[in-house]
Write a structure and sequence with these properties.
Oligomer: single chain
Distance between the termini: 38 Å
Structural class: alpha/beta
Number of helices: 13
Helix content: 10-25%
Number of strands: 26
Strand content: 25-35%
Radius of gyration: 23 Å
Shape: globular
Largest sheet: 8 strands, mixed
Length: 485
């Protein structure tokens, strides 16, 4: 996949003339408009996408020279207070603000990166419960413990909306949803809309669409009218990310209108987006915005030390004002892929890139305990294991039985010939949730292997099946520091 970026604006568009102005629509732009109109999309969403298309076609050199940026200092990236007394004071202040908070989860993804084709939110995540069920449990626990009513809002995609409504209709808390826009995939070079006659023609335009869709749905105005001031927005598959009262207290004390949680970069995530200072303001820089010859420098974790966790805290009135003033600017990311043998481009935006549009924006360095997205089947396996647990408020925590000298979570590596999809787990594990990783440092499996129940992994373990027969690891086996068989 190749990407490049340019800039767009989030603003209200109601008619074709609002977009085109004095400029004429060319044939391709008319085809896009007509295709989106047939799909039943609003004129505002169509106009916004056409502006993205025009800018993407016109701007061929959107790379950011690294000599023009610098890493932020401690005034722009705040640290978690080391003083427990200060944290307690912030938490007390934040608890008073919970009644003004809302939790928004990005629920537009399907499980394709884990080999599946169902909404990720409906997958069993831990303890026999789906992601959606656990997140609802977090909100209910907040409401019960602190006697507040924190709204749970889900941004669905056209793919996840109906299955999500089916799941959430069984919840005993109210759940609000809005559906993010959908846009056509475009044929590379010509920018004509892809025509397969199926849903493969369509994609969500990235999670940066959360702002425009929240506004155009009318939900942003309703939340503000209800007295909601701060939205916590995060990925649905990051169960480590939940409302945190002390962060609310920090936002109020420092008068922050946009806060991005960041964590220290390691070699594993050196490609992740990082915070920079550009033109005297805080901004997000993604690797797609960096020229190939400068990417090694971009990935230098000693120069650019933090990366974006995609946990955002946004002042809703500041967001509304930025949208109404047409001041919310997001880079356009051009993702290039192949669909049915056709080279296509998907135009997307990223949620964190909005940080450059808020003068009072800050980063907040947090620990890895607030960052555990499950993008691969190994992540899901680790989530379901005893290396981490759900506490009494359904928040994901390190298992207290895990030795303190071990890393927060063990490393898990599955070769493609062992396991590439959660749907196939029953072919490799009698019950994957019973495999103990609480004392594991790393766990790597290659080839044809089947694990029975209650296997324990301790230290650094490699298991490799070979030959025509399946290697069976018997029930209750302890595998400790070594290569097996």
């Amino acid at each position: 996949m190749r990407t490049r970026t340019t800039r767009s604006e989030v603003f209200p568009v109601e008619r074709m003339s609002d977009y085109g102005g004095a400029m004429e629509f060319d044939r391709v732009e008319k085809e896009i408009w007509q295709k989106m109109e047939r799909r039943g999309l609003r004129a505002g969403a169509i106009g916004l996408f056409l502006r993205m298309v025009r800018q993407a076609k016109e701007d061929e050199s959107a790379y950011v020279p690294l000599d023009s940026v610098s890493p932020p200092d401690s005034k722009l990236i705040l640290n978690t207070p080391p003083d427990a007394v200060e944290v307690a004071e912030l938490e007390a202040r934040g608890r008073e603000l919970l009644s003004q908070a809302v939790m928004i989860k990005l629920n537009g993804g399907r499980s394709t990166t884990m080999g599946g084709d169902v909404p990720k939110g409906t997958l069993i995540a831990k303890d026999g419960r789906s992601y959606l069920e656990i997140i609802a449990g977090q909100v209910k626990a907040f409401d019960t413990k602190w006697n507040v009513n924190v709204p749970l809002v889900l941004m669905d995609s056209f793919f996840t909306h109906e299955p999500t409504l089916e799941v959430t209709s069984r919840f005993d808390i109210p759940v609000r949803t809005f559906v993010q826009n959908q846009v056509p995939r475009l044929v590379e070079n010509s920018f004509q809309p892809l025509e397969t006659g199926s849903d493969d023609d369509w994609v969500p335009p990235g999670h940066g669409d959360v702002y425009a869709s929240l506004s155009s749905s009318g939900l942003l105005d309703r939340l503000i009218a209800e007295g909601r001031r701060i939205a916590f927005i995060s990925n649905l598959d990051n169960l480590a990310a939940s409302l945190e009262p002390w962060i609310l207290g920090l936002i109020e004390r420092e008068r922050i209108d946009f806060l991005m949680e960041v964590t220290d970069r390691t070699e594993v995530d050196r490609k992740g987006g990082t915070l920079i200072v550009r033109d005297d303001h805080l901004d997000l820089l993604e690797i797609a915005q960096v020229a190939a010859e400068e990417r090694d420098r971009f990935m230098d974790i000693n120069q650019f030390r933090v990366f974006n966790t995609n946990n955002m805290w946004v002042d809703l009135e500041a967001l509304s004002s930025a949208i109404n003033r047409q001041a919310l600017k997001l880079p356009i990311i051009q993702n290039r892929k192949t669909v049915d043998g056709v080279s296509i481009v998907q135009l997307e935006t990223a949620m964190g890139a909005a940080i450059g549009s808020f003068p009072g924006a800050r980063g907040l360095r947090v620990g890895r305990e607030r960052f555990f997205p499950t993008k691969k089947v190994e992540d899901l396996f680790l989530l379901q294991s005893d290396a981490c647990v759900l506490d009494s408020m359904d928040r994901l925590q390190r298992n207290p039985r895990r030795p303190p000298d071990l890393s927060l979570r063990p490393m898990v590596i599955f070769s493609p010939d062992f396991l590439d999809s959660p749907i196939k787990m029953h072919l490799r594990f009698e019950d994957p949730s019973t495999v103990s990783l609480v004392r594991a440092v790393s766990f790597e499996v290659r080839g044809a292997v089947f694990f029975e129940r209650e296997v324990k992994i301790e230290g650094e373990v490699v298991v490799e099946g070979s030959g025509g027969e399946i290697l069976r690891i018997g029930r209750g086996t302890v595998l400790a520091d070594g290569k097996y068989p």
